[in-house]
Design brief:
alpha/beta, disordered N terminus, globular, 16% strand, 286 residues
């Protein structure tokens, strides 16, 4: 196995397995349908087994375009460790609208969402980093549609928020957030973390919280209540230190969990139990 060397080797490095967690946890958000450039598609069964070996015994697979949503529904039927989430990613909606196929895509997502092991509508939300001003209106309309779908189906909502904090919070307030709302890969500051917690949202932290330049994110984590916190990979991206830049996978969650416990000033078993309990509260039993 490769040794940790964050500055060299690119994403083809294969990180070593971390020490197992003392209490099993949930990877709240992963993409086992996505292969990074130059790599083969992940072996789903192998990824689940590797994660289980280090105490990550459940995961939420997210499909955020139509092929990914179809894959997710297929995989949750095969793998008891996996629940699913499906949606049209904020960057996907403007493309579909331009092609004239957005309404058909909505109809398919709504049909796939009836699957009993699809427990999440998401990731939906706003992304002003990759979509320019011309796509903002379509993104916001799509976000509102997904919020409504989550409420109509009784599913949890997972939110993608990139460079769009104020509008995400505003639209959730205007539409009325579902009872179970999760801020995926939380990237806000202390003030936003407090606002989200006050509203009853869950905050899910990825490997970014381990990055050296992420002090503001760690400050946000430090004020997040234990009963509102989750952990995720967002694999194959956002690999935690010391493997930043390598391909991420659910088995690397323990690195993020241990870093989070240090920031929150709690014992690792305490955080593990909270993460597990919170996931079951949001998604139900696996």
């Amino acid at each position: 196995m490769a040794k940790a060397d964050p500055g060299k080797g690119g994403h083809h490095r294969v990180p070593d397995a971390p020490d197992p967690l003392p209490i099993p946890v949930v990877d709240n958000h992963t993409h086992l349908d996505i292969a990074r450039d130059g790599e083969g598609a992940p072996d789903v069964a192998a990824a689940i087994a590797a994660a289980k070996a280090v105490g990550v015994d459940r995961l939420v697979q997210i499909g955020c375009d139509l092929p990914g949503a179809r894959f997710t529904v297929e995989m949750v039927d095969r793998h008891p460790a996996m629940l699913g989430g499906i949606a049209l990613h904020p960057n996907e909606a403007p493309k579909l609208a331009e092609a004239g196929t957005l309404d058909a895509a909505y109809a398919e997502i709504e049909e796939l969402a009836t699957h009993p092991r699809v427990r999440v509508i998401g990731e939906t939300g706003l992304d002003y980093y990759r979509t320019g001003p011309d796509g903002v209106g379509v993104q916001q309309d799509s976000f509102r549609w997904h919020i409504d779908l989550a409420k109509r189906t009784g599913k949890a909502l997972q939110i993608h928020d990139r460079d769009s904090h104020d509008d995400v919070l505003r639209i959730l307030e205007e539409e009325g957030a579902p009872e179970r709302t999760v801020m995926h890969c939380f990237s806000g500051d202390v003030s936003m973390a407090r606002t989200c917690a006050d509203r009853g949202y869950y905050l899910s932290f990825a490997g970014t919280v381990t990055f050296k330049n992420a002090r503001g994110l760690r400050d946000a984590l430090s004020v997040t209540p234990l009963d509102r916190v989750m952990v995720e990979t967002d694999a194959p991206y956002l690999t935690p230190a010391p493997w930043r830049g390598a391909t991420n996978a659910p088995y690397l969650v323990p690195l993020t969990v241990r870093a989070m416990a240090g920031v929150m000033g709690v014992a690792v078993p305490t955080l593990c139990q909270a993460v597990s309990d919170n996931a079951e509260a949001v998604y139900g039993p696996w």
